[in-house]
C-alpha cells in the first residue's frame, strides 16, 4: 500500500479504496505545483493587469462561484466517517490542501474581475451584439448581481456604439443579437487543481446547458401586445453570443429590449428602438433610398460591383430584348426577364429550367417591402455557369446578364447566391443551416479539433474524386468522401460512398478543404464562418464577396490539381499558431461581409447601378406577369408611410 500522508487515518478503508484516494491526492498536489509554477513564470513577464487577471483565472472563479453557489457541497456526498476523519487530520497537521468541495476552490473576491465588453447594434436587422473590447481601457460598471458571498457580481465595461434610434423595415426582425457577455479565461487560478485547459473548453464545460443571460423584448406601449419569437443564444465560442428574434406584428411606439444576467441589465441594456418597427412581411418601403442605406450602414464602395459594371458604361435595353432570347432563351435556358416599375415586380421566363425564379422572386420582393426600388429592366441567369463570354472589345459587345456566380473569362454581373439569400430570409423558420446558425455551431475549440483535413460532398468535379483517392492513401492527413454519385457513377465501386454527415460536424476537424463543384462551391461562405482553417482550391469561379478575401491572410490556397494539398496540411500541423490565426482572420472577415444587412445593401447597389446605366425607360413587356407580395394573414402590418400618403390626398 502507498504511504499514507501524515495526519490522515485510512485504517477504516480497504487497500483498494485507500489507494484510489491517495492517487487523487497525489495528482491534485502535482497539478497545484505545476499550475503555481506556470503562473509564477507568466507573472514575471510583467504584462498588463488584464492579461494577468486572465492568467490567474479570476474571471472564471467568479463565474464558477456564482454558478455553483446553491449546489450541495461535494463533501456531503462522501461517507461521513471518511469526511470527518480526513477533515480532522487536515485540521491537526495540514500537510496539504485537500479540497473536497468545489466551492472551497473559490475565494471571496472583494474586487471582482472586470469583464470588458462592447455593444454593437445595427438597427437594420433585429440584431444586437455584446462583445469584449480589444483595445479600450478597463472600465468598471457593476451589474449589481449578488453572489453567494454577498459581493457584487460581474462588472461590465461598456463602450458601445450609439444605437440607431429608428429601425427601418427589415427583412429580418429575426436577426441575431451578436452578443457576448463574458470573455474567456486564459488559464486557471493558482491552487485550483485544474490544468490550464483551452479557455473555450472551460466555457463549454460549465455553460453548455445554461444560458448566461436572457433577452426580453416588449412593446414600449402597454397597449400594444406583439408576438415575437426569440431564439436561444448561439455561443460563438470566442466570448460572443449571437441572438436572433423574429417579429410577427407591427409595433407603432417601438421596442424595449432587455438583456439580463439574473435580474440585472447587461452593458447598455435596456435598448430602445423607437417605432414604428415592422415585421418581415410588412410592405412599407422607405421612400428615400439614401436614408435607408444610411440606416443600414451600407458600404459606400463595393469593389466587385465596380469591376462588374466597368464593362457596361451604358445598357441598351433594345439590344437586350433582341439578343438575350435568341442567345440564352432556348429550351435549355434558365433566364428570367424582370421589370421593376413603381416598386412592383414583373417577370417572364425564358427557357425550360426556371424553377429557381422562386429564389430571385423572394429577395426582390423582400427588398421592395423595405425600400423604394429604382425602375429597371434586366435578365437574371438561374443556371450554375455564368453566360456572357464576349470580350469588351468585341462587336457586338457583351450583354449585362446578372448571375449568382462569376468567372475569370465571363462578363456577368454578380449578385449574392440564391443559397445565402434564401438561408438569410428563412433564418429561424424554413432552414436550419444559415449564415447565423453556423456561427453558433463551430464544434470543439481549436485545440480539441481533429488534426486532419476534411471533405464531404457529391461528385460534381473530378478533383473531388482525386481528393478521395488522396484520403485513402494518406488517412493520417485527410478524411475525404463522396456522399452521392451522379457525374462519375462508375467510380462509386472503386472509391466507395461515404455516409452523410451534418454540416455542423465538419468543424470537428481543424482543416476544411474547399473544392469547386460545377462552379464555385456554395459551401465556401459557410466554411469561412466556422473556426476551422479553410484550404481553398485555386479557381476561375467566384462569388460576390471573394474579392475581399486574401490568400495566406484569410485562407490557405491550394493548387487547382490539388498537387500541394498534403504539403499544405503538413504545414498547418507544423505551424499551428499561424494556422489558427489565419482561420480566425478569415472567420472575422466573413462575419462582416456576410451579415444580412450587407446582402441587402449589395443587392440594392447592383440594381441602382444598373438603373443608372439604362439608355431607355423600362417597360412591362408582353408575357410578363406581376409577382405579388406574399399574403401573410397571420401578421398585422400597419404602415405609417401609406397612411400619411392617403391623408395628403
From TrEMBL:
Polar residues bias: start-end ranges = 98-112
Stretches for region Disordered: 94-116
Query: What InterPro entries does its record include?
Result: CAP10, EXPH5, Ig-like_fold, Rab_BD
Q: Which GO terms describe its molecular function?
A: small GTPase binding
Point out the coiled-coil segments of this chain: 14-45
- Could you list this entry's UniProt keywords, alphabetically sorted: Coiled coil
- Per the record, what is one GO cellular component? endosome
The segment(s) forming the RabBD domain are 7-63
Q: Does the keyword DNA-binding apply?
A: no
Which one GO biological process term can you cite for this protein?
A: multivesicular body sorting pathway
> Any idea what job this protein has?
Protein glucosyltransferase that catalyzes the transfer of glucose from UDP-glucose to a serine residue within the consensus sequence peptide C-X-N-T-X-G-S-F-X-C. Can also catalyze the transfer of xylose from UDP-xylose but less efficiently. Specifically targets extracellular EGF repeats of proteins such as NOTCH1, NOTCH3, FBN1, FBN2 and LTBP1. May regulate the transport of NOTCH1 and NOTCH3 to the plasma membrane and thereby the Notch signaling pathway.
Can you say what this protein is called?
KDEL motif-containing protein 2 isoform X6
Amino acid at each position: 500500500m502507498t504511504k499514507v500522508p501524515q495526519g490522515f487515518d485510512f485504517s477504516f478503508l480497504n487497500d483498494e479504496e485507500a489507494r484510489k484516494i491517495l492517487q487523487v491526492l497525489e495528482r491534485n498536489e502535482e497539478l497545484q505545483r505545476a499550475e503555481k509554477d506556470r503562473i509564477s513564470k507568466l507573472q514575471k513577464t510583467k504584462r498588463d493587469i488584464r492579461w494577468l487577471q486572465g492568467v490567474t483565472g479570476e474571471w472564471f472563479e467568479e463565474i464558477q462561484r456564482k454558478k455553483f453557489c446553491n449546489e450541495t457541497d461535494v463533501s456531503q456526498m462522501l461517507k461521513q466517517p471518511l469526511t470527518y476523519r480526513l477533515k480532522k487530520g487536515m485540521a491537526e497537521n495540514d500537510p496539504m490542501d485537500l479540497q473536497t468541495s468545489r466551492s472551497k476552490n473559490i475565494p471571496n473576491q472583494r474586487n471582482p474581475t472586470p469583464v470588458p465588453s462592447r455593444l454593437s447594434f445595427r438597427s437594420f436587422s433585429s440584431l444586437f451584439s455584446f462583445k469584449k473590447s480589444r483595445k479600450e481601457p478597463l472600465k468598471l460598471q457593476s451589474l449589481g448581481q449578488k453572489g453567494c458571498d454577498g459581493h457584487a457580481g460581474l462588472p461590465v465595461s461598456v463602450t458601445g456604439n450609439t444605437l440607431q434610434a429608428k429601425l427601418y423595415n427589415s427583412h429580418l426582425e429575426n436577426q441575431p443579437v451578436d452578443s457576448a457577455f463574458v470573455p474567456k479565461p486564459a488559464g486557471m487560478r493558482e491552487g485550483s487543481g485544474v490544468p490550464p485547459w483551452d479557455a473555450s473548453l472551460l466555457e463549454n464545460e460549465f455553460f453548455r446547458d445554461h444560458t448566461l443571460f436572457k433577452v426580453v423584448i416588449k412593446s414600449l406601449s402597454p397597449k400594444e401586445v406583439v408576438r415575437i419569437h426569440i431564439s436561444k443564444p448561439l455561443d460563438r465560442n470566442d466570448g460572443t453570443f449571437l441572438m436572433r428574434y423574429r417579429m410577427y406584428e407591427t409595433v407603432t411606439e417601438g421596442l424595449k429590449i432587455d438583456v439580463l444576467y439574473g435580474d440585472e441589465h447587461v452593458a447598455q441594456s435596456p435598448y430602445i428602438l423607437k417605432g414604428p418597427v415592422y415585421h418581415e412581411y410588412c410592405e412599407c418601403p422607405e421612400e428615400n433610398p439614401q436614408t435607408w442605406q444610411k440606416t443600414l450602414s451600407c458600404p459606400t464602395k463595393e469593389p466587385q460591383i465596380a469591376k462588374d459594371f466597368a464593362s457596361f458604361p451604358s445598357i441598351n435595353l433594345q439590344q437586350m430584348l433582341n439578343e438575350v432570347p435568341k442567345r440564352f432563351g432556348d429550351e435549355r435556358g434558365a433566364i428570367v426577364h424582370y421589370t421593376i416599375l413603381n416598386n412592383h415586380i414583373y417577370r417572364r421566363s425564358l427557357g425550360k429550367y426556371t424553377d429557381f425564379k422562386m429564389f430571385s422572386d423572394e429577395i426582390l420582393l423582400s427588398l421592395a417591402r423595405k425600400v423604394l426600388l429604382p425602375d429597371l429592366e434586366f435578365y437574371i441567369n438561374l443556371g450554375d455557369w455564368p453566360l456572357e463570354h464576349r470580350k469588351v472589345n468585341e462587336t457586338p459587345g457583351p450583354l449585362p446578364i446578372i448571375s449568382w456566380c462569376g468567372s475569370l473569362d465571363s462578363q456577368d454581373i454578380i449578385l449574392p447566391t440564391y443559397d445565402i439569400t434564401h438561408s438569410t430570409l428563412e433564418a429561424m423558420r424554413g432552414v436550419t443551416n444559415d449564415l447565423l446558425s453556423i456561427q453558433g455551431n463551430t464544434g470543439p475549440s481549436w485545440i480539441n479539433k481533429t488534426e486532419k483535413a476534411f471533405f464531404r460532398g457529391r461528385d460534381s468535379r473530378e478533383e473531388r474524386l482525386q481528393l478521395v483517392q488522396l484520403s485513402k492513401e494518406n488517412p493520417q492527413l485527410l478524411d475525404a468522401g463522396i456522399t452521392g454519385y451522379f457525374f462519375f457513377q462508375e467510380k462509386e465501386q472503386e472509391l466507395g460512398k461515404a455516409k452523410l454527415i451534418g454540416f455542423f460536424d465538419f468543424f470537428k476537424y481543424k482543416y476544411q478543404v474547399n473544392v469547386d463543384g460545377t462552379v464555385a462551391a456554395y459551401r465556401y461562405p459557410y466554411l469561412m464562418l466556422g473556426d476551422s482553417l479553410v484550404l481553398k482550391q485555386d479557381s476561375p469561379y467566384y462569388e460576390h464577396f471573394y474579392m475581399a478575401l486574401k490568400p495566406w491572410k484569410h485562407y490557405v490556397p491550394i493548387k487547382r490539381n490539388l498537387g500541394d494539398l498534403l504539403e499544405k496540411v503538413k504545414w498547418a500541423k507544423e505551424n499551428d499558431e499561424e494556422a489558427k490565426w489565419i482561420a480566425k482572420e478569415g472567420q472575422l472577415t466573413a462575419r462582416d461581409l456576410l451579415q444580412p444587412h450587407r446582402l441587402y445593401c449589395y443587392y440594392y447597389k447592383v440594381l441602382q447601378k444598373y438603373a443608372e446605366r439604362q439608355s431607355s425607360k423600362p417597360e412591362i413587356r408582353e408575357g410578363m406577369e406581376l409577382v405579388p407580395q406574399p399574403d401573410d394573414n397571420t401578421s398585422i402590418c400597419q404602415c405609417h408611410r401609406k397612411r400619411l400618403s392617403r391623408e395628403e390626398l
